[in-house]
Design brief:
By secondary structure, the chain is an alpha+beta fold. The protein is 30% helix and 19% strand. The protein is built from 16 helices and 21 strands. The longest helix has 18 residues.
Length: 529
């Protein structure tokens, strides 16, 4: 108890300084929602940020043409009306009237087209639309058309922002800036404004309510419908230490934890905190390899990895005694409409001896293999420790390199880096199931060649043809059939090794009301009573 009190005192002083040097002001404003996010924010361009914390930020500051409801169906957001030609090739979109950016300028179709083009040119998901696009044309300030080369039933789905990055509408000048030029003062049209002057890297991110935002008239549903902001400010307080964050919630220093480790759920529940899963599907755990360097550029080494991973060992370490977890051998998410375990039969039981043999056949000779990890995110930390032990069981010389999460992300996405110069061999990761159940959203299933896909950069022409066939399926029945064929190929190629599913809990104080069950955490509709 003494330890908790000391932590609470330290946090009170720290948060008081963050609020401008007045600890009383830090605790007294009922219109400020203080949140500990899952990680710090690293990318401010909505068409480039690749992870969950970026995705949450993107939809706070930027609006999208469509958004997902609680059933993961796209609904109109910035779009007032739209239609499709009889041949299914031309889509016509009309924007809602009076949409405005945070600087007061009007949102026009010039901004929309420029943003869509930037998103298509720089992302795996956007590239799928670009490859099918014949033209993107402005009709007038509020109307534009999108014409396809061939029928494609996922246009609205893609414009709703599946996964991350998304086509969050930026001003034309921002969308057309040179690639690589940073976006330091993002101007969106969403329900929150980003306060660049209050940003402290590694410390806090601050948003304020956009008083000029005009919500839709429909009730909130998932992240679709009305986005009514009921607080004045949202402050993300970066706290890498999970125990410190949990104590801050229990003592009232913060109001909301985006992610709670399994070892802390009991602590918080005993203190009357609300702890629950917000997302519709469980999170997905997996192990990803670097396909650009030996030994995992050889499928036999990836098969060895699959034979070492025991989901019944890894998932309890992640979920804890009080957590919910499950075995899952699907390259979708178990419990989703696409779930299947077809093709996984050879890898459902561990076989250390066979794994050791396959590693030798792949050319592994005892050199250190670099396993990236981070202590910032408890699930990755736990999975990394379990995986390191399993690799050592097979005689692998494991070099575990733990960093903060932004550094881990940078190293994951670096291309053609040799060992000793930032290169690595493998890492563990997890994603929320609602952003990973579909091959369009699951970036790790992009096996297209050309190194424009996700970290590790796999290349499998056969698998990519099957993925494209799935995208072109005319209906749900054929889509499920084509996904099973794709899944079977993925178990042959192994773009990653599924490690199971588990629930990621969020937690908030009992005076926080209106938290939506949604695709991801939405900070509109929340009240602090």
């Amino acid at each position: 108890m003494k330890r908790s009190g000391l932590l609470g005192l330290g946090l009170s002083l720290g948060l008081g300084l963050l609020a401008g040097g007045d600890p009383a002001a830090a605790q007294g404003n009922s219109r400020v929602l203080r949140v500990v996010p899952s990680a710090d924010l690293a990318e401010l361009d909505p068409t480039r940020g690749p992870n969950l914390v970026a995705r949450i930020y993107q939809q706070m500051v930027f609006d999208t043409l469509f958004a997902f409801d609680s059933n993961l169906q796209p609904r109109r957001m910035m779009v007032e009306d739209h239609g499709v030609s009889a041949d299914g090739l031309t889509y016509r979109f009309t924007l809602r009237p009076d949409l405005r950016f945070h600087d007061g300028s009007s949102v026009t179709t010039r901004d929309v087209v420029a943003t869509i083009e930037r998103w298509m040119n720089g992302t795996s998901i956007g590239g799928q639309l670009k490859s099918r696009l014949a033209s993107l044309d402005i009709v007038d300030e509020r109307t534009f058309t999108l014409t396809l080369k061939q029928r494609f039933g996922l246009v609205e789905f893609m414009l709703a922002g599946p996964g991350a990055p998304i086509a969050g509408i930026m001003r034309e000048a921002d969308a057309r800036r040179p690639e690589g030029a940073p976006l330091t003062r993002p101007i969106g049209s969403g329900p929150f404004r980003y306060l660049a002057d209050e940003r402290r890297e590694g410390n806090r991110v601050v948003f304020e309510r956009n008083p000029d935002y005009i919500p839709r008239s429909e009730p909130p549903d998932g992240v679709a419908g009305a986005r009514v902001v009921k607080v004045d400010r949202v402050e993300w307080i970066i706290m890498p230490d999970a125990t410190t964050a949990a104590n801050a919630l229990a003592t009232g220093e913060v109001d909301f934890l985006e992610a709670v480790g399994p070892d802390l759920t009991g602590f918080l529940r005993r203190r009357n905190m609300t702890v629950r899963r917000i997302a519709a599907l469980p999170s997905v755990a997996f192990v990803r390899t670097n396909f650009q360097i030996p030994p995992f550029n050889d499928v036999r080494a990836r098969q060895a990895l699959a034979l070492l991973i025991d989901q019944k060992e890894m998932m309890p370490a992640v979920a804890g005694a009080d957590g919910r977890w499950g075995e899952c051998h699907s390259f979708s998410v178990c419990g989703s409409v696409l779930a299947t375990d077809a093709g996984s039969e050879p890898f459902r039981a561990t076989d250390v001896a066979r794994a050791r043999q396959l590693l030798q056949e792949a050319g592994y000779r005892g050199e250190p293999l670099i396993l990236l990890g981070t202590t910032t995110l408890a699930p990755i930390n736990s999975m990394t420790q379990v995986l390191a032990r399993r690799l050592q069981d097979a005689g692998v010389n494991v070099d575990v390199q733990m960093t903060d999460f932004p550094t881990m992300l940078q190293r994951m996405h670096a291309q053609d880096r040799p060992i000793g110069q930032g290169g690595y061999h493998l890492f563990t990761y997890y994603a929320i199931g609602t952003s990973w159940f579909h091959p369009l959203m699951n970036l790790s299933l992009d096996v297209s060649c050309g190194t424009r896909n996700w970290a590790g950069y796999p290349c499998d022409e056969q698998g990519e043809r099957l993925r494209q066939a799935f995208f072109e399926a005319p209906d749900d029945v054929s889509r499920r059939q084509r996904f099973e064929a794709f899944q079977r190929r993925m178990w042959e190629y192994l773009p990653y090794v599924p490690a199971g599913t588990f629930d990621v809990f969020s937690a908030h104080r009992p005076n926080i009301q209106g938290v939506l069950d949604a695709y991801f955490i939405a900070y509109w509709n929340i009240e602090k009573r």
